[in-house]
Amino acid sequence: MELELSSSCRRSLDFAFHLALEEGKMEPDAKHCIIALLNDPEGPVATLLKDFGLHQTNLELSKTANNIEVNSSVFESAKKPYISKKILRISKKVLAEQEGTSLGFLVYLVEDFNNTQIVLESLGVQWEQLTNWIDKQRMAPLVLDVPLDLDANTEIDSCLRILDAAGNRVREGLRVVDDYCRFILNSKVLCSIAKKLRHDFNEALQWIPATLLISQRNVEEDVGTTIHTNQELTRLNDQDVFKANIKRVQESLRSLEEFGKLESPDFAVAIGEIRYKSYDLEQRIFRFLDISGKLNNIKIYGLLGSEHLTPTFLDTLDSLLENGLDMVQLRIKNISDNKLLDYAFELKTLIAQNGKTLIINDRPDIAKIVDADGVHLGQDDLPIKEAKSIIGRNKIIGISTHNEDQLRTAIDNGADYIGIGPVFNSKTKTFSKLAGLEFVRESSAICTVPWFAIGGIDTQNISQLVKHGVKRIAISNSLFNAENPLKTLKLLREALVNR
């Protein structure tokens, strides 16, 4: 593209990059470019600006650039071809030149660079007079001896139309995905990720001025606006809406990335990174749908200790799993890892046969080995992120909480479900302090993931919990040590289902 710049313009652009490099910068700012353009005191830019009050042609830099040889090898930046294209485009469109000129470089600075006005006014230039002159050039283009080839820039203009259309599709699609995470999934974590992706995309798009993209928009002559397919006009459910829009985002990002390479390699790289982030967001949402689909239908969560794992009780457990016990946690402490593994494998086989969910307490390593469905963590156990790195990101991770701060932290850290309690005194575990019904009431109002009330729950107090918004319970002694576990399970489940 530099071959389409005049020799004086190319020298000025090279010099501007040299000046920036001398100050340790990767690309020039307005001051560097103006110094470069005024390096020739008899050149077209200096001559023009003198008409508008220029009385000083030298500006100070943090390092002197007097010893720089303009014709030496130029520091190459990915932004340099981008600036060259802008100069060429403005030279043709505003000044009706056939190549990028020094005056076109000046107009580009006036229209696109921050601080250009401040720098020029410090040299005595009357800014309003200069901008009025530029506007007049738009209204009265020069008459050339050689006819201007109006189609010479068709490829560039078409590229900008593609970037504009693809950018709009990405923004629109990300908004739909954001709304899906916020209003349908009600996930604070996913909503935050979606918003961050939108922010990153808007930042990346700043490489290409919005006014330039909009100037090339041509809805009237866009042949694609009237072409539709039946699939495009039909959505089966809200999940179908999400799927269509996340794919729309990814396809449009790919188009932006490929055609963006014609504008700037740096821009293309930035868009590529956002495309990969969109793949990660898609995976996170599908994981959320899979896990929330499992957890939303769970009502009764049984907590098993070693005292329950006898051959006789396992037969009872099998019956409970067949009749409404949805999820089981293996909760055993102070035994050898070998023994714990034996219990875990035995439970895994039984629970898998019934199509139910197995959670291992405290030990993501054991959960990983037996391929359990997930792990449950206490406040003093591994952080969620580290546990997930062991067990795998597609497994369920739950965490116990005892107050509102712990609850909010667990949600922010990505817990799939949360234990809320202890609500009542328990025969299987001693508590120094109860969270009580007040914490249950708070959780019902603010918790955005599935949660289970825990601690001393039985058929006598289940109605109190239901009145405070409880949909799921975690239970141990009052179920597994009941005189009639199946009858107890039925009563508990009826209370929750008929709430």
Describe this protein's structure.
- The protein is of the alpha/beta class.
- The protein has 3 domains: 2-139, Clp, N-terminal domain (Double Clp-N motif), CATH 1.10.1780; 154-292; 297-497, TIM Barrel (Alpha-Beta Barrel), CATH 3.20.20.
- 55% of the residues lie in helices and 7% in strands.
- It is built from 21 helices and 8 strands.
- It has helices at residues 7-22, 30-37, 44-51, 79-93, 102-112, 116-122, 127-139, 154-184, 188-204, 210-215, 238-260, 265-296, 311-322, 337-353, 364-370, 384-391, 404-412, 436-446, 462-467, 477-480, 485-497, and strands spanning 300-304, 327-330, 357-361, 374-377, 396-401, 417-420, 451-454, 473-475.
- The protein has an 8-stranded parallel beta barrel with strand order 1-2-3-4-5-6-7-8, surrounded by 7 helices.
- Strand 5 (396-401), helix 17 (404-412) and strand 6 (417-420) form a beta-alpha-beta unit.
- Helix 1 crosses helix 5 (102-112).
- It is elongated and about 105 Å long.
SSE order and pairing:
Blueprint lengths: L6 H16 L7 H8 L6 H8 L27 H15 L8 H11 L3 H7 L4 H13 L14 H31 L3 H17 L5 H6 L22 H23 L4 H32 L3 E5 L6 H12 L4 E4 L6 H17 L3 E5 L2 H7 L3 E4 L6 H8 L4 E6 L2 H9 L4 E4 L15 H11 L4 E4 L7 H6 L5 E3 L1 H4 L4 H13 L2
Parallel strand pairs: 1-2, 1-8, 2-3, 3-4, 4-5, 5-6, 6-7, 7-8
Helix pairs in contact: 1-2, 1-5, 2-5, 4-5, 8-9, 8-11, 9-12, 11-12, 14-15, 15-16
